[in-house]
UniProtKB/TrEMBL annotation:
Phylogenetic lineage: Bacteria, Candidatus Collieribacteriota
Record Gene3D superfamilies: Winged helix-like DNA-binding domain superfamily/Winged helix DNA-binding domain (1.10.10.10)
Name of this chain's protein: Methylated-DNA-[protein]-cysteine S-methyltransferase DNA binding domain-containing protein
GO molecular-function terms, A-Z: methylated-DNA-[protein]-cysteine S-methyltransferase activity
One Pfam match: DNA_binding_1
InterPro entries referenced in this protein's UniProt entry, alphabetically: MethylDNA_cys_MeTrfase_AS, MethylDNA_cys_MeTrfase_DNA-bd, MethylDNA_cys_MeTrfase_DNAb, WH-like_DNA-bd_sf
Entry-linked PANTHER family: METHYLATED-DNA--PROTEIN-CYSTEINE METHYLTRANSFERASE
Keywords associated with the record: DNA damage, DNA repair, Methyltransferase, Transferase
Annotated Methylated-DNA-[protein]-cysteine S-methyltransferase DNA binding domain residues: 3-86
The keyword DNA damage is annotated on this UniProt entry: yes
Signal peptide: none
Species name: Candidatus Collierbacteria bacterium GW2011_GWF2_44_15
Any single biological process term in GO: DNA repair
Amino acid sequence: MTFAEKVYEAVKKIPRGKVTTYKEIGRLINSKGYQAIGQALRCNPYAPIVPCHRVVASDLSLGGFMGKKEGRSIKRKIALLRAEGVEINGGKVVKSSLWQESQNK
């Protein structure tokens, strides 16, 4: 399995209405290559089956989407998250929307 495939498999676990961080995805796949995780998601050919919009920065800011950190791409990420019930306040996801795989065990 390639690095990108590991990222996609981990991201598919994030339930609708929740988000997780690049760091948590790294933990799941045993990698500290958080920027590489972002690059894999930027190139995600499986959206929306692999819901890359559900991955945010560790400080719960939105991070990137489709290779951008502002403009129409981020507005689209916000719209997708809000449509799933994720609350966003001041450019950050509300902590109650945060998911970690360990919560499911």
